[in-house]
Amino acid sequence: MTALPTAAQEAARAAQAAGVQLREVADLAGFVAVQQLFEGIWKPDPHHPPVTTELLRALTKAGNYVVAAERQGRMVGACVAFFGPPGEAAMHSHIAGVVPDQAGRSVGYAVKLHQRAWALDRGVRTISWTFDPLVSRNAYFNLVKLGAAAGEYLPNFYGGMHDGINGGDETDRMLVRWELAAPRSGVTGAEQAVVALGRTAEGGPAIGSLDGDTLLVAVPVDVEALRANDSALARRWRGALREVLAPLMADGARVTGFDKTGSYVLRREGR
């Protein structure tokens, strides 16, 4: 497969730029460290950890992806993914996280490029995952930097998650699919676009117009801060995004990227 050398080289360059080493985790101490890393990030209900050591052991024994990013011997990120139906040559990336004090240092990018090279080496063509569509930095990272394609809007996909990030609100998610051999590109702006969902001067959601072929759907500047400081406003944003974005996508509008101002860019064709 001609993409393999390029994928491996890109992954190596990304890891070097981020100053991390990526390693597959296959030992019990490593599984414990991965579980603890995720718990430190999400701060979940103790009865509902994001992953368990037993699950990680089973996934790796079956040949799935459990990888840690380390800097100077410290685990600073991790990712867990598993294979899909045999005929689809696909994987689903279940959870990935980077410790807060390493945010913005390209650790997550290094992890995803490692995952891409690892998957291509095993004949996988597509990796899917979900993310919270209200988190603007994740939307930009997934849709623009990685070039994954938004597939579905999934209301309350996991049910209520009582942890330090989701805050007990319903868990709407965006499902994306990353075509591993495709060029990475995503729209970062749009001309002559109609604002379908904007922001008020106070930072709340403002329903706009759907009368356009190119639409912008905004998200809050920092929904995680809102969940900590104004949970009612955070829930209003979740409801507004669900009201606007979900039916647009269900009706065939295509998410083509994410604007740097904090809005999804959608295009409707053939109206």
UniProtKB/TrEMBL annotation:
Cited InterPro entries: Acyl_CoA_acyltransferase, GNAT_dom, GNAT_N_AcTrfase_prd
Any one GO MF annotation of this record: acyltransferase activity, transferring groups other than amino-acyl groups
Taxon lineage: Bacteria, Bacillati, Actinomycetota, Actinomycetes, Micromonosporales
PROSITE patterns in UniProt: GNAT
Alphabetical list of PANTHER family matching this protein: GCN5-RELATED N-ACETYLTRANSFERASE, N-ACETYLTRANSFERASE DOMAIN-CONTAINING PROTEIN
Lineage top rank: taxon: Bacteria
Protein name: N-acetyltransferase domain-containing protein
Residue stretches making up the N-acetyltransferase domain: 20-179
SUPFAM superfamilies given in the database record: Acyl-CoA N-acyltransferases (Nat) (SSF55729)
